[in-house]
Each structure stands twice: as structure tokens, then as C-alpha cells.
Amino acid sequence: MQTFRMIPFQTFDAFTNMGLDEAIMENVRGDKALPTIRFYGWQPSAISIGIFQGIHNEVYLDKAKELGVDVVRRQTGGGAVFHAEGGEITYSIIGPTSIFPANILQSYEVLCDDVVTALKYLGLEASFMPINDILVGGKKISGNAQTRRGGILLQHGTLLYHTDVEEMFSLLNVSQDKISDKLIKSVKKRVTSVEELCSASLDDLAQALEKGFSKERKIIMADYTEEEIARARQLAKDKYSSEAWNFKL
């Protein structure tokens, strides 16, 4: 049974969140840290864009600035994601690629099953939908993304606690002719959240996720090291908040 460090839910700004993932990847690669599972939120709210996206194509930057919403490029692919403060819990799982299925789809299925299990603890019947989504009642409640670099796998995903589709569309660059009551209603029919489905609190969700990701793993509860926090802050300042990184396409 593989041993993992698990770090309980904490909130950070977008740039520090991305820095923490990279700092942990470096430490795991250097055998200075156990494979790690961490749970986190975003303060303030943020938009993360996929590594291959162009920021101007995806985000209304003036609106984001006006509302105090961070914008950051992820290491992983996929589309732009709005991370509302208090509206979700995000997880990252980081470890050597050798301890995960080599097949990308199989690895998504294995890791997303931990989220499915967590939702069962809240009385919700969820299912994995390839390639990387989790559904409840046919509606998306979780999206996930993955990268593998230098022998290390990073998968992160969001689990929606609360959704505000109108706020999301005010920030994401969807062509104006598509933004209509009909589109918003369509998204609301395809997306759901824990708050819509049951009376669980955000703390209840965090505890359920800890239990879900503890399945079939030996878990050591811990915190970030001082070195990881310092490295993450350096990366946040020098890389993840820089125009060179965020505007590179």
C-alpha cells in the first residue's frame, strides 16, 4: 500500500496555489517529500487557463481586474476554469508516474474514483465520465486535468460546492452572441454543485474528500514544509504572476 502525505484544506491566492504544486513536484522528484495529496481553495476568486490557451482569447481581463479576480496559467491542459472563493474545493495529487497507471484514461478513472467515493460519503451517487469529468444525476460536478513531467504526475481537479453561472460568464470570453438566457439555462442544466444536491457544508465536503482519497492508501496527515512555502512564494512572484508566463501565447 502506497504511503501519501495528505495536507488538509487551506486557501491561497492563485499564484501561490500553482507555486505549491510545482514546489511539491520538485520535492517529490528529489525524494525530499512523500507523494502528496492536498486540498485547497482560492482567495480571492480566480480564473485558471490551460497551458496551451491564449489568455486574451479566454478571459475578460479588465472585468477580472475590476472584480479583483486573479488570472493564472496552469501547468495542465484543458479550458479556462472559474474558481469562486468559497465555491469549490480543489485537490492536487502528486507522485512518481510509476505508482499510477501508465494509461492516461485509466489513471483518470482511478484517481477520479476517489472523488466519486467522497461524494458517496455525502449520500450522492456520482460516476466517472471519460475523459476527465465526474457527474451526479447526469450533471457535471467535477472537472480534472493532468500533466506528467520529469517522472512526476500532477492531477488536479475541482469539486463544485456552489455555482454562479452569471458571474462565470461575466469573466470568461464567450462570444457575446452566445451569451443569452438560453445559454445560461443550458449550462445550469448541465452543471450541478454539492449545495444544490444536499445540506453538506464546505467542511463536510473537505472531510469527505479526505476519506475518499484515503481509500487503499496509507495516509500521513501533515502540512507544507517551510521550504515548500518559501519556494511556492518565489514561484508565485517570479513565474506564475508574471506576464512572461501568463501571456506567453
Describe the structure.
- The protein has about 250 residues and is an alpha/beta fold.
- The protein has one domain: Bira Bifunctional Protein, Domain 2 (BirA Bifunctional Protein, domain 2, 2-Layer Sandwich), CATH 3.30.930.10.
- About 40% of the residues lie in helices and about 30% in strands.
- The chain has 10 helices and 11 strands.
- The chain has helices at about 15-30, 55-60, 60-65, 105-120, 165-170, 180-190, 195, 200-215, 225-240, 245; strands at about 5-10, 35-40, 45-50, 70-75, 80-85, 90-95, 125-130, 135, 140-150, 150-160, 220.
- β7 (about 125-130) and β8 (about 135) form a beta hairpin.
- α1 (about 15-30) packs across α9.
- The mean pLDDT is about 95.
Offer a concise description of the structure.
By secondary structure, this protein is an alpha/beta fold.
β-strand number: 11
CATH topology: BirA Bifunctional Protein, domain 2
Percentage of β-strand residues: 25-35%
- CATH fourth-tier homologous superfamily: Bira Bifunctional Protein, Domain 2
> What is the CATH class designation?
Alpha Beta
Count of discrete structural domains: 1
Second-tier CATH architecture:
2-Layer Sandwich
Element layout with pairings:
Blueprint: E1 3-12, H1 14-29, E2 36-42, E3 46-49, H2 55-58, H3 61-67, E4 70-73, E5 81-83, E6 88-96, H4 104-121, E7 126-129, E8 133-136, E9 139-149, E10 152-160, H5 165-171, H6 181-190, H7 194-197, H8 202-214, E11 218-221, H9 226-240, H10 243-246
Parallel strand pairs: 1-2, 1-11, 3-4
Antiparallel strand pairs: 2-6, 3-5, 6-10, 7-8, 8-9, 9-10
